[in-house]
């Protein structure tokens, strides 16, 4: 697979902007406008202050990001090992926020390494088998990205999201988090701790990829986790106003953000953040969205609106080429050609 991917070029990583869209223009102006005592955004420095404001608003909905002075020890345990032709596959478990609770994950370590390797956190979609799907142990063939990236020489880690895989019985009502989203974000920051602890990993070259649930899990995590240098979100988002006509009920379960319903009435006019701001918060880090033209979950026009608005922020950092998108002609999927682009994007983004 690596020989086919090596022939890809930057020409495939085209950022398509619908600059004529009225929604996009108004969103751009709104993203840069003065608000709540913060100035109009004119410089990268101005945006840094706004970014803190964006993260604050996200935590109003998701709950606070835990910031323990001393995180609990990961206590990494290897439960099983299997030698594949290109890598060792380890089933592991580790602690994130509770010494009595384990997160289970698949870890792939390249068989041949002459130096430390870049690593990619691989987040699964909504599927009962959780981590097994990106690890290539079931589910859809198009979503085996932890396995395929390991074939490409990356260290990859695919953990379970709470309430999937080996945490099917996870009870969100019994934890200390306001939202399942924030629980997952914190688990993922500890996954980055784990990756950085491995001698096989280049600690400065860590990326994240995910499809659907994994797509927005990638985005939410990266907003709070600056150690993630490059992100790929497939079928992961659209503007709240274009999510099923503005009906945000799907975002309000305990697995996601209950306050969207209980505090903000599932009304996109009231939710204090949206995806253009989240993407802007990544700047100048590298972000690729794979957003199919016929995705019925996440309206592609809302993706283009968001990307156009966020492009104005990336321009402040002289990093416009770090913000990229492809729009496959398919439904809610991660087809082969799109995965090739995504893997080459991660390779180039994590190579220096």
Total helical segments: 10
E-strand count? 9
Averaged pLDDT: 93
Question: What ranges have pLDDT less than 50 throughout 5 or more consecutive residues?
Answer: 1-22
What value does the Rg take, in angstroms?
19 Å
Assess the beta-strand content as a share of residues. Answer: 15-25%
Major sheet: 9 strands, mixed
Described by the principal axes of the CA atoms, the overall outline is globular
Distance between the termini: 22 Å
Provide the spatial order of strands within the biggest beta sheet: 1-2-3-5-4-6-7-8-9
Provide the succession of SSEs. HHHEEEEHEHEHEHHEHEH
Helix content: 25-40%
Alpha-beta classification: alpha/beta
Model description:
There is one protein chain. This protein starts with a helix and ends with a helix. A hairpin with an 8-residue loop joins strand 2 and strand 3 (103-110). It has helices at 2-6, 22-32, 44-62, 145-151, 180-197, 213-224, 259-262, 275-282, 300-316, 336-349, and strands at 77-83, 87-94, 103-110, 117-123, 155-159, 201-211, 228-234, 286-290, 323-326. It is an alpha/beta fold. The protein has a nine-stranded mixed sheet with strand order 1-2-3-5-4-6-7-8-9, with helices on both faces. The chain is built from ten helices and nine strands.
């Amino acid at each position: 697979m690596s020989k086919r991917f090596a022939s890809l070029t930057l020409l495939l990583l085209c950022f398509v902007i619908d600059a004529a869209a009225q929604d996009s223009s108004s969103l751009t102006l709104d993203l840069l406008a003065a608000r709540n005592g913060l100035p109009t955004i004119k410089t990268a420095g101005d945006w840094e202050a706004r970014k803190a404001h964006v993260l604050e608003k996200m935590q109003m909905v998701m709950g606070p990001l835990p910031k323990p002075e001393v995180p609990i020890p990961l206590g990494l345990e290897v439960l099983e090992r299997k030698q594949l032709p290109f890598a060792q596959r380890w089933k592991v478990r580790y602690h994130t926020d509770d010494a009595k609770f384990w997160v289970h994950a698949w870890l792939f370590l390249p068989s041949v390494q002459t130096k430390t390797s870049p690593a990619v956190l691989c987040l699964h979609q909504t599927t009962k088998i959780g981590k097994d799907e990106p690890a290539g142990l079931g589910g859809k063939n198009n979503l085996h990205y932890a396995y395929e990236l390991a074939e490409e020489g990356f260290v990859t880690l695919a953990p379970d999201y709470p309430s999937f895989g080996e945490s099917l019985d996870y009870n969100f009502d019994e934890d200390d988090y306001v939202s399942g989203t924030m629980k997952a974000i914190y688990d993922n920051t500890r996954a980055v701790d784990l990756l950085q602890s491995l001698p096989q990993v280049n600690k400065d070259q860590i990326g994240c990829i995910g499809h659907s649930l994994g797509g927005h899990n990638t985005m939410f995590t990266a907003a709070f986790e600056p150690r993630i240098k490059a992100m790929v979100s497939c079928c992961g988002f659209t503007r709240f106003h274009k999510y099923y006509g503005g009906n945000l009920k799907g975002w309000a379960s305990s697995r996601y953000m209950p306050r969207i319903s209980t505090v903000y009435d599932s009304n996109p006019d009231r939710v204090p953040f949206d995806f253009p701001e989240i993407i802007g918060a990544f700047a100048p880090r590298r972000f690729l969205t794979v957003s199919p033209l016929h995705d019925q979950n996440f309206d592609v026009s809302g993706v283009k609106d968001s990307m156009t608005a966020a492009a104005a922020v990336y321009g402040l950092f002289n990093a416009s080429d770090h913000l990229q998108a492809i729009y496959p002609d398919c439904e809610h999927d991660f087809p082969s050609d799109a995965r090739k682009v995504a893997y080459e994007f991660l390779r180039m983004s994590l190579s220096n």
